[in-house]
């Protein structure tokens, strides 16, 4: 965070791309609409009295990640923040403000928007759970899962999705400084697919934070964060180097 | 006082085997308005982008107030830059200026927003987003951003392109007013020589990446000659009156009309000559700037 972060954030919050991306956080509210139609679409299956709020929220996060659209919208937003501003000459507005400060402000604002998205998803999940899901037979009506091991699994799932998203956004930012929007979106989606598939493959299972969801909680969350920090730091250092040398 | 010193500045792009700009050396003093003249691809935009640090020099140095601009950040704090009409199209005109002041930590200039937008004739549309503006309005939005912090030094690349004649005259008036009011130095790159002549006191001519000539105050400003038909007593009196009233010069059947004559006065002079059926032919003499293009 620096003095450029808040003006950059305010500017980004007025972009259509940001508003569309944030609208994906309202995804859980679709369950209200689905309820009006007798359809199997978005139906939740769980044993009776088993589904607590946090499990529901974890499910929402996983589904949002799997349908990929919110992340694609985020990657497109990244393209508008970096590549579009570089190619259109908008960077002239910043004159010769230290490039690292500009990069930090853009990344800072981007991650704040992601946290707003996360917060809005949490809020819309809360509303959906306590106004709709709670009436279903499979709902436990409790905030936390019933067992400690379930709680640990759910927390690791939520953290892993958050960290993988941050890694993908850092990767997309790095690409967007150097390449056009097409390359950034395609490689961003490839990265997303790789991160989704990796936990299911023996050799690369532990390459991404989501590979540790079934590991011992006390170590898993630390390893997840450390791995993410390593990836993000490497990508940040490369981004900073390229951004400093950037000519437009 | 010298504000800007450009010394042996060169730029060679990686993909090229030639220099887009080579050994450019010049200075700009306080209050100078320098016209940057040259054909397409001559190196004008490369020079301006080097001055804004959008490009890094291959060789040479640029000093602003004796500080090498490529050694540290925030040296261009006192620069107003309009290389392209840039702004955030999704923000209103007013929000664009506000954003610019915020990122440069210059909120004390917020009070300038109204006067600057009035100067560029955008105050009435300050709540509108510039993405749907005409090209001229977009130019003026970018100009307002460049001017709002009362910069000491302004860089303008092709500011007259896309403007209608009224827009061009307005812009020239704005820049003249600004220069008088704030003693601002400017470098203006343009192909429109007549417009440059009406505002600049110095010219740098670039060709194929080299500075070919630097001119201070044109020795032979552009002018128009009207070749007159033979005069009688009545028409001689009319001519004498015109020469005296509009400070014209008459020699060898030619009435010399300087480029500095306003459009209104020019129309009056031509009207009075035409009323007497005195105009035989009109010639336009090229000035030094035009000659530089022609010579090449």
UniProtKB/TrEMBL annotation, chain A:
Q: Which UniProt keywords apply?
A: Membrane, Transmembrane, Transmembrane helix
Task: List the signal peptide residues.
Answer: none
Query: Where are its TM segments located?
Result: 20-38, 67-86, 107-131, 151-172, 179-199, 219-238
Q: Does the keyword Transmembrane apply?
A: yes
This chain belongs to the protein called: Amino acid transporter
Q: Which organism is it from?
A: Bombilactobacillus thymidiniphilus
Automatic annotation (TrEMBL), chain B:
Task: List the Gene Ontology MF annotations in alphabetical order.
Answer: ATP binding
Q: Which Pfam families match?
A: ABC_tran
Kindly give the InterPro entries that the UniProt entry links to this protein.
AAA+_ATPase, ABC_transporter-like_ATP-bd, ABC_Transporter_VariousFunc, P-loop_NTPase
Give the ABC transporter domain ranges. Answer: 4-233
Look up the domain of life of the source: Bacteria
Instruction: For this UniProt record, give its keywords in alphabetical order, as a comma-separated list.
Output: ATP-binding, Nucleotide-binding, Transport
Is the keyword Lipid metabolism in the record? no
Q: Which residues cross the membrane?
A: none
Kindly indicate whether the keyword Transport belongs to this entry. yes
Extract the PANTHER family matched here: ABC TRANSPORTER ATP-BINDING PROTEIN ALBC-RELATED
- What is the official name of this protein in its record? ABC transporter ATP-binding protein
The record lists the organism as Bombilactobacillus thymidiniphilus
Q: What is the lineage of its organism?
A: Bacteria, Bacillati, Bacillota, Bacilli, Lactobacillales
């Amino acid at each position: 965070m620096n003095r450029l972060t808040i003006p950059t954030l305010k500017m980004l919050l007025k972009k259509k791309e940001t508003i569309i991306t944030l609208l994906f956080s309202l995804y859980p509210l679709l369950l209200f609409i689905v309820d009006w139609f007798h359809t199997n679409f978005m139906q939740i299956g769980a044993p009776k009295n088993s589904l607590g709020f946090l499990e529901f929220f974890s499910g929402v996060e996983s589904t949002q990640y799997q349908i990929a659209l919110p992340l694609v919208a985020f990657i497109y937003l990244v393209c508008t923040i970096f590549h579009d501003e570089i190619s259109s000459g908008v960077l002239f507005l910043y004159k010769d403000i230290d490039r690292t400060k500009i990069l930090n402000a853009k990344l800072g604002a981007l991650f704040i928007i992601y946290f707003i998205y996360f917060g809005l998803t949490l809020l819309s999940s809360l509303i959906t759970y306590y106004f709709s899901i709670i009436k279903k037979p499979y709902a436990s009506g409790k905030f936390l899962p019933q067992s400690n091991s379930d709680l640990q699994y759910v927390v690791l799932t939520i953290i892993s999705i958050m960290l993988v998203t941050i890694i993908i956004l850092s990767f997309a930012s790095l690409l967007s400084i150097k390449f056009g929007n097409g390359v950034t979106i395609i490689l961003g989606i490839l990265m997303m697919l790789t991160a989704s598939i990796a936990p299911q493959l023996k050799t690369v299972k532990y390459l991404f934070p989501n590979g540790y969801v079934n590991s011992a909680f006390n170590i898993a969350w630390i390893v997840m964060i450390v791995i993410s920090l390593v990836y993000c730091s490497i990508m940040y250092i490369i981004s900073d180097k390229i951004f400093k040398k950037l000519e437009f | 006082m010298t504000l800007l010193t450009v010394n042996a500045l060169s730029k060679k792009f990686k993909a090229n085997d030639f220099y887009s700009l080579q050994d450019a050396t010049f200075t700009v003093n306080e209050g100078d308005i320098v016209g940057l003249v040259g054909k397409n691809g001559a190196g004008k935009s490369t020079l301006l982008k080097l001055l804004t640090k959008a490009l890094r020099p291959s060789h040479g140095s640029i000093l602003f107030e004796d500080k090498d601009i490529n050694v540290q950040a925030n040296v261009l704090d006192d620069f107003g830059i309009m290389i392209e009409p840039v702004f955030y199209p999704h923000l209103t005109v007013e929000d664009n200026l506000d954003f610019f002041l915020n990122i440069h930590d210059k909120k004390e200039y917020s009070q300038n927003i109204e006067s600057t937008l009035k100067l560029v004739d955008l105050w009435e549309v300050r709540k509108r987003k510039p993405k749907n503006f005409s090209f001229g309005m977009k130019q003026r939005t970018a100009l307002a951003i460049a001017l709002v912090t009362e910069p000491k030094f302004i860089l303008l690349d092709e500011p007259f392109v896309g403007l209608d004649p009224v827009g061009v005259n307005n812009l020239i008036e704005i820049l003249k007013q600004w220069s008088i009011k704030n003693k601002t130095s400017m470098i203006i790159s343009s192909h429109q020589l007549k417009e440059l002549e009406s505002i600049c006191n110095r010219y740098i001519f670039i060709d194929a990446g080299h500075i070919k000539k630097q001119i201070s105050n044109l020795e032979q400003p552009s002018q128009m000659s009207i070749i007159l038909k033979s005069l009688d007593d009545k028409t001689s009196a009319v001519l004498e009156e015109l020469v005296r009233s509009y400070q014209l010069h008459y020699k060898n059947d030619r009435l010399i009309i300087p480029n500095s004559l306003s459009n209104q006065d020019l129309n009056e002079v031509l009207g009075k000559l035409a009323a007497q059926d005195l105009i035989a032919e009109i010639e336009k003499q090229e000035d030094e700037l035009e000659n530089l293009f022609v010579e090449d």
